Amino acid sequence: MILIHCPYCDEKRPEIEFANAGQAHVARPLDPSSQSDEEWEAYLFIRANPRGRHHERWRHVHGCGRFFNAVRDTVTDKFETTYKAGEPRR
Amino acid sequence: MSGYRLENGGRIDRNRPVEFRFDGHSYQGFAGDTLASALLANGVSLFGRSFKYHRPRGIMAAGSEEPNALISVDRGAGRFTPNLRATSVEIHAGLNAFSQNRWPSLKRDFGAINDRLGMFFPAGFYNKTFMWPRSFWEKLYEPAIRKMAGLGDAPTQEDPDIYASTYAHCDLLIVGAGPAGIDAALEAMGSNKRIILIDEQDELGGGALADPALWPWLERSRKALTDASNVTILTRTTAFGYYHDNFIGAVQRLTDHMPDNSDSPREKLWRVRAGEVVLAQGAIERPLVFDGNDTPGVMLSSAAKVFANRYGAAVGKSVALMTAHDSGWHDVFALAKAGVGIKAIIDVRTEVSSALLDEANRLGINVHLNHSVTGVNGRHRVTSIQICNNDDYLGARIDCDTLLMAGGWTPSVHLWSHSKGSLAWRDEIGAYVPDQPNENVRCVGACSGGWDFGSGVIVDMLPTPKDQSRIKAFVDFQNDVTAKDIKLAVREGFRSIEHIKRYTTNGMATDQGKTSNLNGLQIASTALAKPVTDIGLTSFRPPYTPQTFGALAGHAKGALFQPTRTTNIDGWAAENGAVFELVAQWRRARYFPKMGEDMHAAVNRECVAVRSSVGIFDASTLGKIEVVGPDAAEFLNRMYTNPWKALEPGRCRYGLLLKEDGFITDDGVSARLAPDRFHLTTTTGGAARVLNMMEDYLQTEWPDLDVWLTSTTEQYAVIALQGPNARKLLEPLVEGIDLSADAFPHMAIREGTICGIPTRLFRVSFTGELGFEINVPTAYGRAVWEQLMAEGAKFDITPYGTEAMHVLRAEKGFIIVGQDTDGTITPFDAGLDWAVGKKKPDFVGKRSMARPDIVAPGRKQLVGLLTDDPNVVLEEGAQIVADPRQPIPMTMIGHVTSSYWSETLGRSIAFALVAGGHEMMGGTLHIPMPGKTHEAKVSGMVFYDAEGARLHV
């Protein structure tokens, strides 16, 4: 069972306290109605599936409740880093 | 020596004899014996029948790596455990053990015919042979194979034992308490580290338990560690798996070794998080591969030493050794000194050190260098062996009752591999050893490849003059894989060891290749003419040894399998005969049968009562979210499809929630209590999901909004009072709220008190009748409910359950998200376009409602269905076709989502999702069901009081 560092609690906690929330840094367009079908499709459905470093969102759902970002290696399942929502991509 | 019990020695307590049973016969052993040592001491050599060929098998090892002697222990009803290793089962008074995979008896086994037919059972035999006809698999082949091939019988009764579990944290976890593990613990003991020392055996010591010279040291060490306050010692505990971030799973066997053991927990699961892990798992001796190496009486030489020195049991009276390693010589020297008769040493090597030869000479043991065993005589026990010179194949027969084999050593890297540490090949020991760690872990002692019992050579198979295709030289004893099978797999084109493993089953299943992996690799390597390192290595997987489901489940079984959520009113429902159902972990009253009523009759009565007078319903499970803050209205406006900003305080609105893909995910009626405060409701099952979704948008998309979300589901008990007499019943109980139709219209909320309890009173209806939903603090739910029941007696108030609620809402055309929708239904598909704010520039899911696939014709749409025969209630989930005369397979155009008998209407009603359904009003569709295809007309979804006259009173 992985330990995950919550950047808000600043503690490493067992993964059962957390929930994955999909790929990180996929911002909702500010004006969805101006999006073309292709742009909206890309926002809704197209996601990375990297072998290695992956930016994803997690929520400390059974802790502070905050969403945050993480870099996880999809091969080793190791977390490289976690950081608060809104902070620049690492 | 009396029988096979040595006169002296061993760690058994000869003052404490123990009676036990094996296959119905009574035997005597001593406290400290395992089932294996006690039976060996009684001269038993036959322990079981092999997996596939039903060959007689004896003991091969002395520890948990034993592949042959799998037995079952019966501790009474529901307490039957198959596939235990006889070498790991401690005897105690009353132990009742059985051999496995034999019929009618161990000595006369019908299945042994497989062995005579062995040439017809090569690797992949089942896959190749039982291909045709396909239908025979399920009824004939598989049951027959399952009966013939296999391990012990699975228990059939519920396990009455208790299993405990715990979490533990430590700075240092040491797995394995042999000399290396004990040294690691002694070394760390002086620090202030919290240390846990785990060993699978009943006492500390590992290999030292078979070396009397080390016993004084062992006793001193054991005392020092036991006295140290920072060291926790867990014996009879198997670290079975190594998971991420130094998380180790271990099972401690608490009571199986005790005679009277049914009251305390049987086993305890330890989940240990360790700062650092030291693996001291030791090494496992490797069998040698030659014809007949599985005959009872052929065993590992190290095991014979353990039986003699630790248990005081001689494995035979006339023992020969076949070795490729110095350690075998040391073992038989120890046996000779313990009083075991040694017949001969046969070494495959041409040269060994003079020290070994001198000692053999001194002990009077015949030595045959550059020789190999080429055959074993005896079926239930070795009677003699055939040996040959490796060069000229000139042979001799040696009479003996036991043959030891010493093929070198395999470091136990199982847990290291679970942790994804890398391995490096070491040619001189012919084995993989730990290389680069992936966690904070190190290996010490023999499992790191370091040992001090001399050197040896690695041979894939012993040389033999025999036809290689006619001999049975076993590699994986537990799965009955021979060298021939592996060579066959290579001939048939398998190249990777991963494929060879799956085709031959070498190293699979409960054994995980403890004694077979490396021999299999060597044989494949020779057959492929490639170095071992080029053909890969199979993965070791948890568990290291089989563990019980009971230990893994712990307390999480039966009623404790998952939490059951109950409302404050649940107790009243139980006392009043409710039949319950589980809805998303909530226990909800489904209906309240009166004497003699079935569900159908009860639901009909409950529905009629609501429509004619008043019904009462526990709606406490509704999800509730308090939305507070200056931007609360703006936030809801962005989340829901409907407009929220203009909603006046005191009014309610039906909210429809989409996901960003435009599909309905939840709905519910919500109220505005104040300009900056809303009381949201969600579906019972959707509460957590909706809160998570709202938090997501609030935290990550719109962090500028000043809004706070709080789950209040469990803060309020909710009582729905529905029916034409609801207001009359409520009036005398409510204070501070004018209940008149003008002052308190449909879809409004008022705050006041009921029975003196503060309430948020909604005037809403999920039944189509005049209705109220009374929210009171949870603790008062039952008190208010009982007061309403008492006051309602004069209106013949009727409690109703979820089943009647479903019928009542369906009569009114109200959908249930998740039943009538399936995650691919848009508001338009569901006929809810009226709930979409057309003028809103944006809300979650709005853009997707213009996606090409969403506006394309032919989407499945929700419609009403009225069967031509009003007495037919369609099956929910039944498929719908346009033309019942079309050939099979028919084109299915939809399915029934909800279907009920409506007592009010005197006929059946249904909803269905049908492709292009909105365009089919009045058309006929066909629903094939078991026995008959039914016809139904497409209709609107509101079957009762379409104009809503009953609501606005």
Automatic annotation (TrEMBL), chain A:
The entry's keywords: Oxidoreductase
Q: Which InterPro entries match?
A: SoxD, SoxD_sf
At the top level, the lineage of the source is Bacteria
Primary enzyme class: oxidoreductase
Recall the GO molecular function terms of this protein's record. Answer: sarcosine oxidase activity
- For this protein, the Enzyme Commission number is 1.5.3.1
Write out the GO biological process terms.
tetrahydrofolate metabolic process
**Record keyword Oxidoreductase present:** yes
The keyword Membrane appears for this protein: no
Which protein is depicted? Sarcosine oxidase subunit delta
From TrEMBL, chain B:
What's the protein called, per UniProt? Answer: Sarcosine oxidase subunit alpha
Q: Which residues form the Aminomethyltransferase C-terminal domain?
A: 860-945
Q: Which InterPro entries match?
A: 2Fe-2S-bd_N (IPR042204), BFD-like_2Fe2S-bd_dom_sf (IPR041854), FAD/NAD-bd_sf (IPR036188), FAD/NAD-binding_dom (IPR023753), GcvT/YgfZ/DmdA (IPR028896), GcvT/YgfZ_C (IPR029043), GcvT_C (IPR013977), GCVT_N (IPR006222)
The Gene Ontology biological process annotation of the record reads: tetrahydrofolate metabolic process
Q: What is the originating organism of this protein?
A: Sphingorhabdus rigui
Pfam families given in the database record: Fer2_4, GCV_T, GCV_T_C, Pyr_redox_2, SO_alpha_A3
Gene3D superfamilies, alphabetized: 2Fe-2S iron-sulphur cluster binding domain, sarcosine oxidase, alpha subunit, N-terminal domain (3.10.20.440), BFD-like [2Fe-2S]-binding domain (1.10.10.1100), FAD/NAD(P)-binding domain (3.50.50.60), Probable tRNA modification gtpase trme, domain 1 (3.30.1360.120)
- Assigned protein family: Belongs to the GcvT family.
The keyword Heme is assigned to this record? no
Keyword set for this entry? Oxidoreductase
* SoxA A3 domain: residues covered: 472-554
User: What enzyme class is recorded for this protein?
Assistant: oxidoreductase
Which residue windows are transmembrane per the record? none
Residue span, GCVT N-terminal domain: 572-840
Q: Where is the FAD/NAD(P)-binding domain?
A: 171-425
